[in-house]
Amino acid sequence: MEQLFKKHHMFISQVDMGIVRELMDKIDWQKQLVGIKGSRGVGKTTLVRQYIKKTYGVQPGESLYCVMDSIYFTTHSLLDLAEKFYIRGGKHLFLDEVHKYPTWSKELKEITDLYPQLKITFTGSSLLQILNADADLSRRVLSYTMEGLSFREYLHFYKGIQLPVHSLQAILNHPDSICEEVNAVCRPQQMFEEYLRVGYYPFYDGNETEYYSRIENVINFILEQELTQFCGVDPAFTRKMKSMLLFLAGNLPYEVNIAKLSSYLELNKNTVLSYLSRMQRAELLHLLYTDNKSVTKMQKPDKIFLHNTNMLYALTQDMVIGTIRECFVVNQLAVNHSVEYGRGIGDFKIDGKITIEVGGADKSFDQIADVPDSYILADSMEFPVGKKLPIWLVGLTY
After folding, report:
1. Is 184 helix (H, G, I), strand (E, B) or coil?
2. Looking at residue 292, what is its pLDDT?
């Protein structure tokens, strides 16, 4: 156990406290069992280490941070660790990447029964099925999801510019005052263009080549390890899934032709639909339907986008600006809203009632002129013109 204490000190002492994601203040860390899910690379590990350093300092004792693929767990169980830690006066156990420990759910259930005073916080893949795990944790876990950086968080993280969160309704109702607030502290359009390229993941260090290489590593890890571990994908088919992702990246926004996609991949239609669904759960894709309420398990989506614009830049060189704009809107709004494919009546329908058309500064209202609750989100604008709003405004919604 001493080796875990040494690693704890090393990990926590090295973490940078310069900028802390706001999710830290939203998590109820005092609950007995807290789970933080999210895609690889969005910053779950950093967040947990920052909380430990801020709350408990760098020395282990009341707290202990463990990475669950540590060699320690090849000869020791999680249950054994919890017992020893509790006996030594431990109060808060942090388990990073809990999905790498095969029997995590059963042992966590037993630990919470045996040591009700011991708090446990764990992180896991976005594919982690906490509610359907081997042991019933649904009534015990307070679960949070961590996203990549919004445009608003990017301004804070990389530019030192702090702006409040604005709800979508506030943005639609009061765009003038919000735009004045933003333009008073920065020139948003230039920074927005940079965000589209390198702003979603919190590990950009000024080198775009290395940044995109790290994104490719994230994608490969998800396809080769997480999908095979959590979704039962045969490892022999991971190359097919990579081919699918690259095909979609080069053809986005993709109005779905499952027959064509099946032929290209040499897979049957049901397998293709199953893979698309799993890639959405893994936060590689966004699948859009014309009616979210009637979506069935094997129904084909109507339009497909990559999960975020940085991923798009990492996977393809032949990008269309319209695709980038639409990908951004879907990525930002899907965090807190239902996003449907508009199919000609605007590009998107939000929460079943708000119609959104996306385009450049010269985009007209011709397609949505008579549609109630309709708006244009336009690029290359810093202030609204009527119901035509700067597209970057939706990046302030989380």
Report:
1. coil
2. 74
Tell me what percent of the chain is helix, strand and coil, each rounded to the nearest 5. 45, 15, 35
The angle formed by the CA atoms of residues 251, 257 and 258, to the nearest 5 degrees, is: 115
Alpha helix (H) residue ranges in 33-126? 44-56, 78-87, 104-114
Tokens of 28: 């109820």
pLDDT in tens, 193-218: 999 999 999 999 999 999 999 999 99
Q: Which residues pair with 254 in a beta bridge?
A: 304
Domain that includes residue 273, residue range: 154-396
Whether residue 352 sits in one domain with residue 227: yes
94 and 159 belong to one structural domain: no
Nearest to 124 by CA among 149, 148, 100: 100
Cα gap 301→350, rounded to integer Å: 16
* Same domain, yes or no: 139 and 161: no
What CATH number should be reported for the domain holding residue 87?
A: 3.40.50.300
Instruction: Single out the residue in 146, 172, 193 at which a domain terminates.
Output: 146
Q: Environment class of residue 292 by beta-carbon count within 10 Å: exposed (0-12), middle (13-18) or buried (19+)?
A: middle
Q: What is the pTM of this model?
A: 0.92
Of 146, 179, 209, the last residue of a domain is 146
- Please name the residues in contact with 38: beta carbons below 8 A apart, sequence gap of 6 or more: 44, 123, 125, 126, 145, 146, 147
Is the model's pLDDT at 288 over the cut of 60? yes
Structure tokens at 192: 């927005």
Count up the domains in the chain and report the number: 2
Contact 66, 93 (CB under 8 A): yes
- Of 366, 374, 378, give the one whose Cα is nearest residue 328: 378
Instruction: Tell me how many degrees the CA angle 159-160-165 measures, rounded to the nearest 5.
Output: 100
